[in-house]
Write a structure and sequence with these properties.
Number of helices: 1
């Protein structure tokens, strides 16, 4: 890409011959600095309007810095590979060839920005690797309630067998609240009770 840039030129008051200090122009709308890729005109070399003086790497592309007028490069102030801010001095130009030698030890005036050596952008640090999460603990087994023990069986009261050969035997509980009666039936019952006791003993019946 080529661009005939309007470069900022400063004329410093000094005892040196007439000269111009040329600063780096903005070669793109967003350019704030650039790197001198290469010089196409060396110190002591002359150039004409439209000639490429140097190539500059911008934030977009490499652009040619073209001269607008004729001139002679008396001193290069920014070596190839240096990063230069827009407006910083990059060279001194003169109109008369015999004035070149006066600028062999030329330094930009105090306060002028100094070109910096371009440095490669640091590589981004690798993203930390996420450590594997520990497996979740297995859930504790839910305790199962023990089945209640079966209730002990209720013992049935033993019933003595009926007296053999006595179909008229009637069993009366000893604690039965019966009124005292007299008569033939009560006499028979009393006899059966005594007969039961003599045979089985007193069992409560």
């Amino acid at each position: 890409a080529q661009r005939a840039a309007s470069s900022p030129i400063r004329r410093w008051l000094s005892a040196l011959p007439a000269h111009q200090v040329v600063g780096l122009p903005a070669l793109s709308p967003t350019m704030s600095s650039g790197v001198i890729a290469s010089w196409k005109v060396s110190e002591g070399g002359s150039y004409a309007a439209g000639d490429v003086i140097c190539e500059v790497e911008t934030d977009k592309a490499t652009v040619d810095f073209e001269a607008q007028d004729d001139g002679i490069v008396a001193k290069i102030l920014a070596e190839a590979g240096n990063e230069v801010g827009v407006g910083s001095p990059i060279m001194v130009i003169v109109e008369d060839e015999k004035d070149i030698g006066a600028f062999s030890d030329f330094e930009p005036p105090a306060g002028a920005p100094t070109p910096q050596k371009s440095q490669a952008a640091p590589e981004p640090a690798p993203a930390p690797t996420a450590s594997a999460s520990p497996p979740a603990p297995a859930p504790a087994p839910t305790p199962v309630a023990a089945a209640p023990a079966p209730a002990p069986p209720v013992a049935e009261p033993a019933v003595p067998p009926a007296a053999e050969g006595d179909p008229t035997l009637v069993f009366i509980r000893a604690d039965a609240e019966l009124p005292l009666v007299k008569g033939p039936l009560a006499s028979i019952i009393s006899q059966q009770k005594e007969k039961y006791h003599s045979k089985y003993g007193i069992t409560g019946f």
